[in-house]
Design brief:
- By secondary structure, the chain is α/β, with parallel strands linked by helices.
- Helix content is about 30%, strand content about 25%.
- A four-stranded parallel sheet has the order 3-2-1-8, with helices on both faces. Strands 4-5 form a two-stranded antiparallel sheet. Strands 6-7 form a two-stranded antiparallel sheet.
- β1, α1 and β2 (about 30-35) form a beta-alpha-beta unit.
- It is globular, with a radius of gyration of 15 Å.
- The mean pLDDT is about 90.
Amino acid sequence: MIKVYTYSHNRPDLIKPQYNSLKKHLKDDFEFIVFNNERMGGDPGSGYSPQRIEEINSVCKELGIQSIRVELDPELQYINGFKQFEGESFVSGGSHACGYSFTWGWKHYISKNNCVSVIIDSDMFFISVFYRDWE
């Protein structure tokens, strides 16, 4: 089993085509998991929208895939000495939002798996066949 993780915050419309590219090109059994990291203080270019949190969850529910809300973990408020969030908001735009979310996902989910895990960006799509050949 392969677990494929992505992080979504501003483009819920890309979840379905991304999932379809996985179904078409990934020839092993896989589970697709979306970390929902829409939050104030994220990428200033995307504009925060609280409705987007539910949009992401809704798309995932429609596709039958898991959506996991990225939570703010007090143990990760500072990463490498840099403050990541204050209250309910990321503090320094997209770089902290992305770095924090990847660290949170690794700590709470990905590192706990005993399988192949793949992390892809939310606008990354498979364009050719992909399969494991190392077993």
